[in-house]
Amino acid sequence: MRTSTANPFLQWIQLALRTGEMLWASGQVIPIRLGRMAAAGHQPSARDRKEFARMAPEKLQAGTESLLAVGLKLQAMQLQWLAQAWRPWFTSAGWQPWGAPATWQRTSSDLARLGSAALAPVHAASRANAKRLTRPKSPAGAARW
């Protein structure tokens, strides 16, 4: 969902809500996984080994995707800021000081989008884990449709 740059406050609210969703999902996943580790003991089942083996790579993947998203957003923001700084030299629009309200609003909006880009992969991974680990399991031997 993309919000307008007209109101950065809404973007910050959306970022806060998505952060809360991610924290809630993590709060569901962590106790489930710790419980499975404790119950498995020294001889985990094949299903448990599969689950335990996916924990580190999924964190690495989400972190890498987050870092890439932040790098791309920062690059775009730097180019926008550079264009804004050089605009008075190439146009007759005149100088807009960095302290102008529109500039600060745009900067706040850019920073909220940067936070959203950083959070998106981690949010997606945590929500997917919560959904996968909390769905009811079919009994052993039951037919799957």
Query: What is the tally of helical segments?
Result: 3
- Briefly note the structural class of the backbone: mainly alpha
Q: Would you count the extended β strands for me?
A: 0
Regions with pLDDT < 50 over 5+ consecutive residues? none
What do the pLDDT scores average to? 85
Q: Termini distance?
A: 33 Å
Rg calculated over all Cα atoms? 22 Å
Strand fraction band? under 5%
> Main β-sheet: number of strands, strand sense, barrel status?
none
InterPro entries: PhaP6-like (IPR053785)
General description of the model:
InterPro entries: PhaP6-like. It is a single chain. The chain starts with 7 loop residues before the first helix and ends in an 11-residue tail after the last helix. It contains 3 helices and no strands. The chain has helices spanning 8-40, 46-90, 101-134. The chain has a domain at 13-87 and 115-131. The chain has 145 residues and is mainly alpha-helical.
Entry summary:
By secondary structure, the chain is an all-alpha fold. Helix content is 77%, strand content 0%.
Summarize the helices and strands and which ones pair or pack.
Blueprint (H helix, E strand, L loop, with lengths): L7 H33 L5 H45 L10 H34 L11
Helix pairs in contact: 1-3, 2-3
